[in-house]
Amino acid sequence: MLPASIQITGELLSAAEVQDICESLKEDSVRLLSVRGCQLSDRDFGRVCRSVAESRSLAQLNLNLGVVSSISRTRHLADALKTNRSLQTLFLHGSPLLDAGLVTLNTALSTHPTLVCLDLGDCMLGDEALGLICGMLPPDGAKSGLRELTLSANPGISSKGWARLAIAVAHSSQLRVLNLDYNPLGTSDQIAGMLAVAVASSRTLEVLDLEGTGLTNQSAQVFLDMVENYPTSLRVLVLAENDISPELQQQICDLLSEGEDDDDREAPPLQPGLASSSALLPIRDKYQPIRDKYQPPAWLPHSNSGPQMVLLTSGVGESLLAETEM
User: For 168, which of 42, 66, 134, 245 could close a Cys bridge (C-beta 3.0–4.6 Å)?
Assistant: First the structure.
């Protein structure tokens, strides 16, 4: 039997339901487990984590919206990740981890052999946590690291912390998608400049989400100069809900589209079976002050990423994910 998915949103989980989840995990019959926004006892959370540790089929775990609500739950999760060897994607968006939580999780996250996608948006993180996250973006020639990283809505991170991240991104050999939306980056145009240098230096970064970060035309001009004058792997730059003129945004979009067309003409044909690794598309909770907002996809294989990544700017993410969210 092929591994299936369990997706539950905003429910109070009974002990019997948790038992069913645990048995399915132990039987290696679950590839995706999402208990997003669900309530369960500390004892039951521990049971789920122990089953995650034993699972050899689980590829995606979604604990978004406060499921990891205490340091004791963080320890349970860390213990599970130290044993699990199958997980590729972990969502903790909206969990009050704080820096202490990242300290607890750091060893398990940084040494996990298959983890490539991590969502730590709206987790109340600061500079100490960001320093640990930078260690998950190893430089060229080092071990493999994250391919998709979400740090949305963590306003406790300072300019110094973002500078450290920019350096890590510039030298990362793996990172393809970076979501920094709804962080107050626009307080200094220096941050935008550092991120532009990081994008120009990176040979892999394809998607950068800076929605609602307080950027101005001056910041956007830096990105325009970068994409206009220097070769880059960037395919999508999200600048919505910033004080940036539509004309400037359109110029950047047009230049990125031109680069994408050139790559499509030069790219070799897709190897048979390569697209199969993107069959499981994660669901990301994209922070919004008023309502939940969803975006497709997490990491997609490099040679197959062009047309799909453009959808990030089209505003159709919710409809694309409708069938997987329910």
Answer: 134
Please classify residue 75 by burial: count the beta carbons closer than 10 Å to its beta carbon, then call 0-12 exposed, 13-18 middle and 19+ buried. middle
Please choose, from the candidates 134, 132, 213, 144, the residue with its C-alpha nearest in 3D space to the C-alpha of residue 166: 134
Angle at which helices 127-134 and 159-171 pack, to 10 degrees? Answer: 10
Give percent of the chain above pLDDT 90: 70
Adjacency order of strands within the sheet including 207-209: 4-7, 30-34, 60-62, 89-91, 117-119, 148-150, 177-179, 207-209, 236-238
Other CB atoms within 10 A of residue 316 CB: 11
Band (145; pLDDT cuts 50, 70, 90): confident
Residue pair 213/185 in contact (Cβ under 8 Å)? The answer is yes
- Best CA proximity match to 157, nearest among 195, 176, 190, 131: 131
